[in-house]
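Notebook p. 47: complex prediction with adenosine-5'-triphosphate.
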Amino acid sequence: MRLSELTSRGSEVEVTGFSIDNRKVEPGHVFGAFRGAVHNGEDFIEDAVERGAVAVVCRDGIGTFKAQRIASDNPRETFAEMAAKFYGPYPENVVAVTGTNGKTSTVEMCRQMWRMMGKRSASIGTLGVTTSDDQVKTGLTTPDIVTFLNNMAGLKRMGISHVAYETSSHGLDQHRAEGVPLKAAAFTNFSRDHLDYHETMEAYFEAKMRLFDELLPEDGTAVVWTDDEYSDAVIARVKQRGLKLLTVGERGETIRLGDRRSTALGQAMAITHDGETHLLKLPLIGGYQAANVMTAAGLMLATGSGFGDVFAAMGRVSPVRGRLERAVITKKGAPIYVDYAHTPDALVAAIEALRPHVEKKLITVFGAGGDRDRGKRAPMGMVAAEASDIVIVTDDNPRSEDPATIRAEILEGAPDAIEVEGRRAAIEKAIALAEAGDIVLLAGKGHEQGQIIGDVTHPFDDGEVARECAA
Ligand SMILES: CC(=O)N[C@H]1[C@@H](OP(=O)(O)OP(=O)(O)OC[C@H]2O[C@@H](n3ccc(=O)[nH]c3=O)[C@H](O)[C@@H]2O)O[C@H](CO)[C@@H](O)[C@@H]1O[C@H](C)C(=O)N[C@@H](C)C(=O)N[C@H](CCC(=O)O)C(=O)O
Ligand SMILES: Nc1ncnc2c1ncn2[C@@H]1O[C@H](COP(=O)(O)OP(=O)(O)OP(=O)(O)O)[C@@H](O)[C@H]1O
Ligand SMILES: N[C@H](CCC[C@H](N)C(=O)O)C(=O)O
Ligand SMILES: [Mg+2]
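Predicted complex, structure tokens below:
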């Protein structure tokens, strides 16, 4: 493809690919030079050109180099637009999900439900790129724009027509997950996280709203979960832009949630659509998964599925890896659940999900990630202490921080909690304390396979460790 086909400012030079890392540049590439959190990509322009970059997308006036300059006030955005043209075509039915919690669960449910309805489907997000017969891990929710577009195009080549993907606030802010035309986009909820990066709740919210303000095209449909503090703000923006809107939740107009009660194997939910109420037997526990399955159902309706098919598929969804997953039952008879709650709101949601199943005590084990939002630590301690019977504060990916300092910051919100250094020791302690009738919740790591201490990732899987300790 010629550069002129990717931008009106381009010459007739042939383009062979795109890179954002000079070390990956090959002859014929377009190099994106971005200022990042750690490095300044502009410092690598010279090397990228030496390696054969034919064009560089960067700010105006940066350096002099022997390749075509595509100057932009927002190089990441311009680069994403050009790369999107290069890597296409993409699957026809693509939807995106944003929100603080529930993105992974919702996209995974979309993938499952489409498959049940006979569509070839995939999801992209924290769990990696998932199809019906494969899961390729990518390390981040959205690794980078080139990987994202490459994955989307690869799925199309595999014959996949339906894809649901997660848009994290980092990904939205850095234009890491866009360029693929969207049919619909969903909002799950909004609460504190990532303030280390966004600094204020307003900036964090605005990053998420790019999905509805910019990524979703004029003819796209917004699906909004209605029962969050921020739902009305999202609905107002969607209406202001004149987008089609589907609402789901207790106040939902498209799918309304009525009575919901826990059953031994999951929950029974009354849901109303088009004036008719149906009883859904969801084979998953937890109010939060009830919310996510409704949001996923909204996305199914938005991409043309009929309610009858969607309803049948909702009743057959399987658990999502690391989200309220029962790892083992201890010798004394206490079930141990693994969950990915790593924000105050998610901790509340996970504890509330288990509460109806607890006969005696709920024991919550968790920590907080190092090099991440410090301000969420004490609130996490506070909500865990309020809603659990016993709290054990331990470590979760301390990264470059001192684990004892992180624990101390959590303990400010939970002064009566038991502090245990080292996650395995904490899980052992919880198992030792748990009696028949109790439930243990191991929160924060979900599907993760490692504990990141310093720069080293040590193999660690909460479920596996629980099974070892319970044996
Ligand atoms: C803070 C943050 O989000 N950083 C992400 C961002 O990096 P950055 O642009 O700031 O990169 P940088 O290292 O400062 O480098 C700047 C530029 O120089 C380039 N470079 C750098 C070094 C070099 O030798 N040569 C070179 O060309 C880099 O490719 C980059 O374009 O863009 C990179 C890819 O384009 C990401 O890999 C990186 O994720 C880091 C590793 C990370 O930990 N991110 C987490 C916080 C994250 O994004 N998480 C969210 C999930 C959150 C959630 O779900 O709750 C996610 O979407 O995964
Ligand atoms: N709808 C929801 N409302 C509140 N909490 C939720 C909801 N969905 C999930 N959670 C909580 O958040 C945790 C993470 O869920 P999930 O992985 O689906 O979210 P995510 O938005 O993809 O998270 P991340 O930002 O890490 O990618 C769950 O384990 C659960 O504790
Ligand atoms: N996507 C989230 C995951 C947090 C999971 C938790 N285990 C941690 O390491 O903080 C983040 O990068 O902030
Ligand atoms: Mg996720």
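Notes: The longest strand covers residues 255-262. The chain has 16 helices and 23 strands.
Next step: compare against the earlier run before touching the bench.
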